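Suppose you are handed a protein chain with no further information: no name, no annotation, nothing but its sequence. What can you learn? This example shows the usual starting point.
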Amino acid sequence: MKEITVAVIGSGSTYCPELIDGFLKAKDSLKLKKISFMDIDERKRTIVGNLCIRMLKAEGVDCETVLTDDLDTALQGADFVVTQIRVGKLPARHIDETIPLKYNLIGQETTGIGGFFKALRTIPVIKNICDRIEAICPDAWLINFTNPSGIITDFVLNNTNVKCIGLCNVPIDMLDDTKEITGDDSDITYVGLNHLSWITSVKVGGEEQLDKLIEQGFSPKVMKNIQDDGFSLETLAAIHAIPSSYLQYYYCRNAKLAHLHEGEKSRAQKCMEIEEELLEMYSDEGLYVKPALLDERGGHKYSLVAVSLINSIANDTNEEQVVNIKNGNTLPFLHPDDVVEISAKVGKNGAVPVPVEEIKNRHIIGLMSIVKEYERYTVEAAKTGSNEAALNALLVHPLVGDWEAATKCFEEMKEAHKDYLPQFFNN
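A reasonable first move is to predict its three-dimensional structure. Written in structure tokens, the prediction is:
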């Protein structure tokens, strides 16, 4: 049994008990020597951290636990660093979701101009975390759940010396939903970028089932945080792939925009209410299990994804998982250093992409290529504070594009997030 030390950065997240639940389920293969819960929000760090400690004790897990607001303290001796931070917290997300609506743009947490600003706020903080990892625990693996996960992981892998793998719970939900229909032995090809992904092949006994699934109108279950507008049979037939629910922002854009305009509350405001309800539950010293309400936050199977990855590295299992890593030669229409969301074999040396049969779907190639260009511009803007790079990012993104809307919304949101954008205001 592998003994590990884990640092959770952003441990005040109400998702954190989900992670601990995963470690408890894996306690026969992973022994926690020490776990540090680090967060700058004292109230949430204390409430959530104490629940996590009660969960560990209730299951007889005897490990050292640390609650701290100091990054360096949390990183001491870490084998794995899990990042789940939200710079500016939910009020910043509310800004990301609401200001764009004034310019008739979709406001969303991880995509479009909302996701763009989340990346701009987050990358400077992630850079500091990576600097400290390099100084304190250079051999540690950074397991990144911080959104937008693909962009953040791209920054880390191409701008630091930290060993990093990015994660999301969308792939496992899509794969599990598909296997419910086609069986556990089905061979599924999943390709894309984080929150821009498709299933492009489903083989059972060597026979392709994709056309049959499309004819049946099969789609994986929609994430809890997305209002379901569905994909028409005509849409699925045209793109000849099974899209993730985040593609609804692209394929059902007008419907999504209408919902956002009509909604009485932003998703961020709803999450604030759920979060407060969860924190009240977590404060009950008699609670020592993950409450069911946590699934309403959209983090379904988060623990399974995170702990499976950590277990694969720690115990060198060489299991296949969908992760965010460098493309290499897997998808020849993208650069080798581009971070993509693909299947990989995971062991002690990290993740090695599983070869993919050549993707000939021009729709997927085109959309991935343009959104990846947006991601490259976004990383450049976050690093340099370049208005030119920022506006180019927004102009190429399919959910923005319009010059007047992009420039006016960019300036208003930049001012609204001024406290978290030193790269734009300290130059």
